[in-house]
Amino acid sequence: MQVLGLVSSQVPSHQYKKAEQTHVRIPNRLNRQFDVQAPNQVWAGDITYVCSGRRWAYLAVVLDLYARRPTGWALSLTAESALTRRALTMAYESRGNPSGVMFHSDQGCQYTSLTFRQQVWR
After folding, report:
1. Please, how many CA atoms are within 13 Å of residue 29, restricted to the half-sphere of its CB?
2. What is the arithmetic mean of pLDDT over 39-62?
3. With the C-alpha atoms ordered 60, 64, 70, 73, is the resulting torsion angle positive or negative?
4. Nearest 5°: phi and psi at 118?
5. Domains, the chain, ranges and CATH?
6. Measuring CA to CA, which residue among 32, 99, 45, 52 is closest to residue 71?
7. Which residues sit opposite 76 in a β-bridge?
Protein backbone atom coordinates (compact mmCIF):
# COMPACT_ATOMS: atom_id res chain seq x y z
CA MET A 1 0.00 0.00 0.00
CA GLN A 2 2.88 2.39 0.78
CA VAL A 3 4.49 1.77 -2.61
CA LEU A 4 1.21 2.58 -4.38
CA GLY A 5 0.37 5.48 -2.08
CA LEU A 6 -2.82 3.86 -0.80
CA VAL A 7 -4.35 4.57 2.59
CA SER A 8 -6.96 2.62 4.48
CA SER A 9 -10.37 4.18 4.88
CA GLN A 10 -12.38 2.72 7.74
CA VAL A 11 -16.14 2.92 7.55
CA PRO A 12 -17.54 4.71 10.62
CA SER A 13 -19.34 2.55 13.16
CA HIS A 14 -23.10 2.19 12.97
CA GLN A 15 -25.70 1.77 15.67
CA TYR A 16 -29.47 1.47 15.34
CA LYS A 17 -31.58 3.70 17.55
CA LYS A 18 -33.58 2.01 20.28
CA ALA A 19 -37.18 1.23 19.35
CA GLU A 20 -39.72 3.39 21.11
CA GLN A 21 -42.59 0.93 20.73
CA THR A 22 -43.24 -2.34 22.48
CA HIS A 23 -42.18 -5.45 20.58
CA VAL A 24 -44.97 -7.65 19.23
CA ARG A 25 -44.05 -11.32 18.86
CA ILE A 26 -45.51 -12.88 15.71
CA PRO A 27 -45.50 -16.69 15.26
CA ASN A 28 -42.88 -18.10 12.87
CA ARG A 29 -45.06 -20.02 10.41
CA LEU A 30 -42.32 -20.46 7.82
CA ASN A 31 -40.19 -22.46 10.29
CA ARG A 32 -37.08 -22.34 8.04
CA GLN A 33 -38.87 -24.00 5.11
CA PHE A 34 -37.17 -21.83 2.49
CA ASP A 35 -37.72 -24.18 -0.49
CA VAL A 36 -40.75 -22.66 -2.19
CA GLN A 37 -42.50 -24.37 -5.13
CA ALA A 38 -43.99 -21.36 -6.97
CA PRO A 39 -43.69 -17.58 -7.22
CA ASN A 40 -45.63 -15.36 -4.82
CA GLN A 41 -45.99 -17.99 -2.10
CA VAL A 42 -43.42 -16.65 0.38
CA TRP A 43 -41.69 -13.30 0.47
CA ALA A 44 -38.96 -12.34 2.93
CA GLY A 45 -37.93 -8.86 4.00
CA ASP A 46 -34.89 -7.40 5.68
CA ILE A 47 -33.09 -4.10 6.18
CA THR A 48 -29.40 -3.37 5.82
CA TYR A 49 -27.43 -0.16 6.08
CA VAL A 50 -24.96 1.38 3.68
CA CYS A 51 -22.49 4.14 4.38
CA SER A 52 -23.17 6.93 1.90
CA GLY A 53 -20.38 9.36 2.56
CA ARG A 54 -21.00 10.99 5.92
CA ARG A 55 -24.40 9.39 6.62
CA TRP A 56 -25.93 5.95 6.83
CA ALA A 57 -28.64 5.02 4.36
CA TYR A 58 -31.05 2.15 5.03
CA LEU A 59 -32.09 -0.29 2.34
CA ALA A 60 -35.19 -2.46 2.80
CA VAL A 61 -35.56 -5.36 0.37
CA VAL A 62 -38.39 -7.85 -0.26
CA LEU A 63 -37.34 -11.16 -1.86
CA ASP A 64 -39.55 -13.77 -3.45
CA LEU A 65 -38.10 -16.97 -1.98
CA TYR A 66 -39.00 -18.94 -5.12
CA ALA A 67 -36.93 -16.79 -7.49
CA ARG A 68 -34.45 -15.63 -4.80
CA ARG A 69 -34.59 -12.18 -6.38
CA PRO A 70 -35.69 -8.78 -5.10
CA THR A 71 -39.26 -7.85 -5.96
CA GLY A 72 -39.37 -4.62 -3.98
CA TRP A 73 -36.96 -2.25 -2.32
CA ALA A 74 -36.76 1.18 -0.75
CA LEU A 75 -33.95 3.44 0.42
CA SER A 76 -34.13 6.02 3.23
CA LEU A 77 -31.97 7.98 5.64
CA THR A 78 -34.09 6.67 8.53
CA ALA A 79 -34.85 3.05 9.46
CA GLU A 80 -38.55 3.46 10.15
CA SER A 81 -41.53 1.31 9.25
CA ALA A 82 -42.37 3.68 6.35
CA LEU A 83 -39.25 2.28 4.67
CA THR A 84 -40.40 -1.34 4.93
CA ARG A 85 -43.94 -0.38 3.86
CA ARG A 86 -42.60 1.24 0.69
CA ALA A 87 -40.54 -1.87 -0.16
CA LEU A 88 -43.60 -4.09 0.41
CA THR A 89 -45.80 -1.83 -1.72
CA MET A 90 -43.30 -1.99 -4.57
CA ALA A 91 -43.17 -5.79 -4.38
CA TYR A 92 -46.96 -6.08 -4.22
CA GLU A 93 -47.59 -3.78 -7.18
CA SER A 94 -44.74 -5.15 -9.33
CA ARG A 95 -46.13 -8.67 -8.90
CA GLY A 96 -49.67 -7.75 -9.96
CA ASN A 97 -51.27 -7.53 -6.48
CA PRO A 98 -51.06 -11.25 -5.56
CA SER A 99 -53.10 -12.74 -2.72
CA GLY A 100 -52.23 -15.41 -0.17
CA VAL A 101 -48.53 -14.49 0.07
CA MET A 102 -46.76 -15.34 3.34
CA PHE A 103 -44.38 -12.59 4.50
CA HIS A 104 -41.35 -13.53 6.63
CA SER A 105 -38.95 -11.18 8.43
CA ASP A 106 -36.58 -11.02 11.38
CA GLN A 107 -39.36 -9.33 13.42
CA GLY A 108 -37.47 -6.09 13.86
CA CYS A 109 -39.54 -3.16 15.05
CA GLN A 110 -40.05 -1.92 11.48
CA TYR A 111 -41.79 -5.22 10.63
CA THR A 112 -43.80 -5.57 13.84
CA SER A 113 -45.08 -1.99 13.88
CA LEU A 114 -48.84 -1.59 13.76
CA THR A 115 -48.77 0.26 10.43
CA PHE A 116 -46.67 -2.46 8.73
CA ARG A 117 -48.84 -5.27 10.11
CA GLN A 118 -51.96 -3.47 8.92
CA GLN A 119 -50.47 -3.18 5.43
CA VAL A 120 -49.68 -6.90 5.36
CA TRP A 121 -53.22 -7.78 6.50
CA ARG A 122 -54.71 -5.53 3.80
Report:
1. 9
2. 90
3. negative
4. -65, -40
5. 45-121 (3.30.160)
6. 45
7. 58
